[in-house]
Request: fold
Amino acid sequence: MCGIIGYIGKRNATSVLINSLKKLEYRGYDSAGIAVIGKQGLELARCKGKISNLEQLIEGRKLTGKIGLGHTRWATHGRPSEENAHPHTDCKGKIVIVHNGIIENYLSLKKSLKSEGHVFKSETDTEIIAHLVEKYFLKTGSLLSSVQKVVKRIEGSYAIGVISSDEPENMVAARKDSPLIIGLGKGEHFIASDIPAVLNYTRKVIHMENGETAVINRDRVSVYDSKGKPAKKKIFTVEWNPVMAEKGGFKHFMLKEIFEQPRAIQDTFHSRADLESGEVYLDGLNLTKNKLKSVRKIFLTACGTAYHAGLIGKFLLEELAKIPCEVDIASEFRYRDPILDEKTLAVIITQSGETADTLAALREARLKGASTLAVCNVLGSTVTREVESMIYTHAGPEIGVASTKAFTTQLTALLLLAIYLGRVRKTLEEEKAKNIILHLLRIPKQVREILESEGLISSFIKKYFKKEHFLYLGRGINYPIALEGALKLKEISYIHAEGYPAGEMKHGPIALIDENMPVVAVATDSKVYKKVTANIEEVKSRDGIVIAIANKGNKEIKKLADEVFYVPKTLEVLSPILNIIPLQLIAYYIALSRGCDVDQPRNLAKSVTVE
Reply:
């Protein structure tokens, strides 16, 4: 949500800022802007809409310099407009700031600043930061000292970048509850809200922690803790390269990421699962076996797609490790006073590691004494730095807003965790573990088989893309797949879609079914297969349209469904990984047929970093 880039060095700052902002478009935004300090002083360019609009705005202008800030804004306070777009300036137009997050006490601060004579030009909470920096800069003459005083007065979440034409050799940054990194180069440095923004220039980054401030010039980076004392920082080398974050010939990032799933799944279990012994080895798991044996309950908490992964994780952990599990939407978890203690394991599931509600859930779990483990895709993210243990999902950068490969790698990681706990706690026999691992090793090839049949989906979906309502049904471990399939469709096509446990259809949704209602049913082999086919018959008896996901060789389903998409057979515990692939493709091709912006759906952001 929102994107920040800052640059100081030898290059043309305008080019760096524009190129880097394009790498952050996936986060979702409604306006964009840059500020550069050059020979003419501080110059600003902002506009409503896409970065392409910003490029047109600055075309022909001599907007050059060696230091600058850029931002893509997703409206929270104030409508999308040029006036509300970042960067924001002080009264004199010498100090400029960009900000991600929400300043909760901005109204009282704004009232105070107005009484002192400050004039505001926007409706945003962000602008008060520029005026506060101006106020303290007049007293201290130091940009760093001014920002350090400002962050003691503002309440809420923030990632801030600040530059000033009165101190053009420095850029200052600050962070609390909103991600911010510092990219390290030779004779140049960067600040950014996310790694892809700097990957074309450097792979060495520092992650700023809550309460830290930093002053950055061409040759040096100095970071300070919340008390203003120098902080020792670890330098991370990013494993991704710029090519991994490009489309690679695909029309959209989402389609590319769907097709990357065989590789991503394999990378997630590679070297972690031993077929010969039936054992799983989890690097990053810092909890002792005795500690894991003492666990009496597991809480899984996440948001959106990751929450659906958690629902499947509950099935896996209870079946294989025989540990009672609860699954919570992270935004609800901390407000219901959950009962946790030292014999509880909290599993935090997040692609980015920066989701605000998920971080709050993690901190609540720690506060109550639970052990914590993250399933995460971004090494060095806030979540991975705050948990005791983590399982890295190896998905690589996921740019499309609608999550695909992050989901299937989360399922893979949760399966590995369930096998590991089952073996440690002696609830999973060696032979059964070996059999699961054997079938897991086949999954990447089976996903490729499904993807090779994508043309079938793109052709039959042409019959249904104008429908305005869809119902998704599943049972058992595939009920969450119905939820996820519906979420994918509504996210990128704007069609109203509901996911439901098929057995609950009679308790309400069946009233919606008629000849205009497509119903997508997950009907692969399982303990509840007969129950699912009975539910399909209920749909057909009310003239509903049935699109079924079934296993290859199933001839019975053709008699029941209007359309069938076949997937390879596997164990029931692994079936969600295969069954979600056609549902991702259905959502993609319907959105494409409707002319929707697949990678950047309206009103959505990749990483929700505010509550």
